[in-house]
Amino acid sequence: MRCGRTAYAEAPDSSPKYLKKPIYDDVGMLPSAASKAALKAAADSAVKADPKPTSKAAHPSSSQSVSNPTPTDRLEKHVRAARLSLQRAVSTGEDKLNNLLTQGFHLENSFTSTIASLAPSKGSSEKVLPGSIYVLVSAMAGSILTRNRNILLRFSVPLAAGITVGWIVLPITSRNVGDLVWTYEEKVPAVRNAHLYTRGFLQEAWRFGKVHAELGKKKIEQGVEGARGGVEGWVSGKK
């Protein structure tokens, strides 16, 4: 048999010392709207004062590596500089060698073409080999004739003998040689003027000698004709 009893419940005490502490301590420390606005304003002012505050902090190692390169970086830099300098030296040497070979090739072509231009044409009857031998023999003969004379004759007579015989037996080759020498003489005005003066003097002397030879020939012919007429008259008178 049950006996009825009345149960009485008491409300918890609302005093601060009986309040339970919440599980998350930060819940009671959440900032209010006013504090949020103050924090945002402070952050904006800091950004305006230093626009890039994170760039320096984000790459501290890169600035440090630029200011203080490692031994490997320095070695790589020196090796690259040595390789570039060696490449430039090799390229310069190769260009100089190519230019030298090109100049030598042009010089060889010029020499061979000049020698070929001195020879007479194939259609002419002039022969270089026997004619050149005659020129050398005449120059040697002039040197032998003047071996006991002064230095001027010993130099000029063989040269004049060789040139004279060359113009006689090798006229085409002599003319080609003269044209070649004239092209070089034109580059030096003093030599050119001396050549022109000498050639003019020789031409005038040759013309003067030729005229006197013609006059002497005519006088001899006239003397011969007179002598023959006198002889004929004397023979006819005897008869």
Molecular structure report:
The protein has 239 residues and is an all-alpha fold. Helices cover 76% and strands 0% of the residues. α5 runs antiparallel to α6 (151-169). It has helices spanning 33-49, 53-58, 60-67, 71-118, 128-145, 151-169, 171-185, 189-238. It contains 8 helices and no strands. The relative contact order is 0.03.
SSE layout and pairing:
Elements: H1 33-49, H2 53-58, H3 60-67, H4 71-118, H5 128-145, H6 151-169, H7 171-185, H8 189-238
Compose a concise summary of this entry:
The protein has eight helices and no strands. The chain is mainly alpha-helical and 239 residues long. Helix 6 crosses helix 7 (171-185).
Terminal Cα span: 229 Å
Shape: rod-shaped
Can you count the helices? 8
Give the low-confidence spans: 24-28, 53-65
> What is the chain-wise order of helices and strands?
HHHHHHHH
Give Rg in angstroms: 61 Å
Summing up helix and strand content along with how strands pair, one would put the structural category as mainly alpha
* Count of DSSP strands: 0
Helical residue percent? Answer: over 70%
- Major β-sheet profile: none
Strand-residue proportion: under 5%
